[in-house]
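[job 4471] stage=fold_predict status=RUNNING
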Amino acid sequence: MKDQSLWYLENIDVTGIFCPQKLGTHNKSEHTQKNFKKGDYIYMPEQSSDKIYFLNDGRVKIGSYGDNGKEITKAILNKGEVFGELSMIGEDKRRDFAYAMEDCQACVLTTEEMKSMMREHNGLSLFFMKKMGNRVLEMESRLESLVFKDSRSRIVEYLVDLVKKSGQRVGYEWVVRKFITHQEIANLTATSRQTVTTVLNELRTDNLLTFNRKRLLVRDLDLLAAEIA
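[job 4471] inference complete, writing structure tokens
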């Protein structure tokens, strides 16, 4: 399967560009590596949008709150991904929050530093164009799923996409480590935690997958995909 991470794009070593200190070069000492504890909010809505983050380690949830105060999960990001990038296209204040789901380390750059780096590395413009384009396509896909598919299909579709993006093949099976909670799946699929639990248990009874708090094991990805109505 093609690597879906953002570590490399068009032969650009993104890690080396964003985090030169991590690789032992010190000519860009203004780039800061920062640690966040599990449960920390990296930023909140209405805060100044002037920084971009490259995730070295850990997982970060990007979300917002509805008018009724209900949390809406927009994305769960893993090692090697970038967030806070809307500051590059004119966002003045944050509309979303970024939350550390576990202990995290990120390289933090100001918008001006990033713009300067883009002038030095032409490929970075392509990097951000592809990244933002992928985010838009993902949101459009989720919207279409919400409108045209039932709750069960949305949950199964999310599991299939999760395996394709983050899974590791082991023989005929697929493993996703650091499986997220049922509530997080519900937030991502606009369903309830009870519905997610019911669907997962049904799929486990049908021997299509098994799971615990640490991992998801899919027995046959094609058969699981066939469950999408």
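[job 4471] summary: The longest strand covers residues 51-57.
[job 4471] exit 0
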